[in-house]
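Q: Joint fold for the lines below.
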Amino acid sequence: MRPDVLPVMLVFLPFLAGLLQFIAGRPAPRLGNVLVGVNLLLVLALIPGVADEGAIVANLGGWSEPLAIHLLADGLALLMLLLTALLAVAVSLYAMAAWRDQHHDALRFWTLWPLLLGSLNALFLSRDLFNIYVTLELVTLAAIPLVLLAGPGKTVDAALRYLLFALLGSLIYLAGVALLYAQAGTLDLALLADALPDSTLAGSLGASLIIVGILIKAAILPFHVWLPAAHGGAPAAVSAILSALVVKAAAYLLLRLWSGPLDPLVTPAAGQLLGALGALAILFGSWQAFRQERLKLVVAYSTVAQLGYMLLFFPMAVTAAWQGAVYHGLAHGLAKGALFLAAGNILLYLGHDRLREMRGIDRPLAVSLLAFGLAGVSIMGLPPSGGFTAKWLLLTASVETGQWWWTITLLLGGLLAAAYVFRVLRLAFLQPPENVPDRPGMVPPPLMAWSATVLAVLAIVLGVVSAPLLELLGSPVGGSE
Amino acid sequence: MTALDSLLALLLLLLAARCVSARSLLQAIVAFIVLGLLLALSWVRLEAPDLALAEAAIGAGLLGVLLLGTWRSLPLGHGNERIPLPWQGLRPALITTGCTVLAVLLTVALHQHPEQAAMSGLAALDQLDAAGVDQPVTAVLLNFRAYDTLLEMGVLLMALIGTLMLDSPLPRDTELPARTMLPATLAQLFLPLILLIGLYLVWAGAYSPGGAFQGGAVLAGAGVLLILTGFGEGDGRDGWVLRALLAGGALVFTLAGLLLIPVTGAFMAYPQGLVTPIMVLIEFSLALSIALSLLLLYTGTPGLRRRGER
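A: Joint structure:
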């Protein structure tokens, strides 16, 4: 098979599966699981080509530049696809067990989830500003109905707020795209940087609008207000997808656009501003996570904090910072998936997720707590986890560029993360009071416990396989060395 | 014509102000619908008839129907779990400042740097002959940038699934306030005409303004008329045929792209000679899916049935 068919398959096989599931009208979890398996194989098949040639490009429609639409699988896109594919397998296995007896919800999940997977793949493979707009819309509109799966009336408010913020972000982004297109006459990311005239007001305004639009979608402080309720309220499998992949996709776009087409338009001051937003998100999000009384909100606020680390690339803009930001995205994705799935298991067993009433769950939920603890190690950034590698790279970058203030942020962020992770673990391992309350829920089936654990283990393993992955990633396209 | 344009611009501003300042929601909705109609006129003045048609059919027409339908059932909604939002009191000030700053910056930016001739736009006009249709907008939507259009069909489908997932906010047995049916003669008089216009718009997309989105919206309007005159209604159950038609646009589009890879060597490239028939097939299946999706968004139900049928 020609390698450029792979990107096309990655987009359209999930779409086809979702459409067929929609038409069939009966939940087919097996179809969904076969799909995520095939998806993983397709991503793995991309690796040799990308490693050899740096990138695989597929031309859609066969037109020539500047008209053509391309799908681009380079190192950055490939790593995000890989994260998505690994998470997809774990989440799908979890979901198969979680929705086994709920016909109605299962049908909705297995319709929307393949469509979301295809949309995420399409977003990561996009090489065109307008394709990115449409894929962002697709990702959002697939994600929001999934939030509603929590049950009638429960998350309507959260989902509506998510929708309104997301639409605002899309509109602002689209306005920016229109401005840049008016200046450059092309939407192709590879051609934009050269086609854009130097430092015009329209160009700067367009770039700013694009960045603000994406910041809203990525829930970066101060636009984080929609995230905790939506991610904390959704069912566990959905929260894992949203926190690990959906907001990550927006953060990924910032990296992709900043180091490529927007490179001529961005200034060091703008980089410092984004870094400051990231630092604020790290400190504020971690502090909020420490103060929450419900487990899923702890994990959701932790996402607000962890997304901040990816923004630390912009002020430093050296290769180590680039690798650190991307690696942080990968490590956080795997760890956060594990945390949410484990939290879902706890919720299933207790019937609630109030932290103060959690004591005494260490025996029945040992495997899930193992997952939570291991994922916590990566979130805190302790060696040998993926989170450690990412933070180490970011620290190196801050020393290399002499910007010591990010060193302090990184260390404080790690300490605060340790505080909120250990707070949860302490409450979970406390001895139960004499009169044990009745546990209304059930012990999660092994599939649900182990899918969380596998993700957590992967987050740790990420720390020891960094060399080949970083080589695959390469250095930022247009960034200063 | 300058006088007419100035009047249009002034009216647009006034109506927009009315939309955000009206005390009652109904007044705001009515202002919004009128705004949509005037916007359509503005697009005509800006020589963008495709946009004008879309704005009139979707922006002013169907959107108005959806908004009014929502307004009608608002009092029946019961409270969901509300989550407080920070900086609630600051919101009006924030929004006003943000919009004003943006408007000023945009005006200045567009004045300093008037639009350049777009290189991909020119390339598209150059290669129009190979695109299978004479109308540039349709060529962009269904051929040059078919990928975007295909993904947009996914957006529409997911919006529909999401809306239907909200379920009805009403307890099963509550009846909406009795709806005054429009006289049946209205449907008998106008329906053939609307259907004809809808189908014509889809077909005309190949060589003049029109196309799947505009035509689909008009066809959906025909469905809305059938419901308002009491011939049809929404149904809580759906069938696979309906679902297949809803997904059909995206499905035909995708399959045409995938199955021809061995022939043409690229996804979404169509073999010479077959371009036009394939595009017409895609256009009509898209229009049907769009019409049905919009109609179901209006009824808020997964299915449709003839009135009185169970």
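Q: Anything notable?
A: The beta strands of chain B are 232-235, 303-306. Chain B touches chain A through 60 residues (CB under 8 Å).
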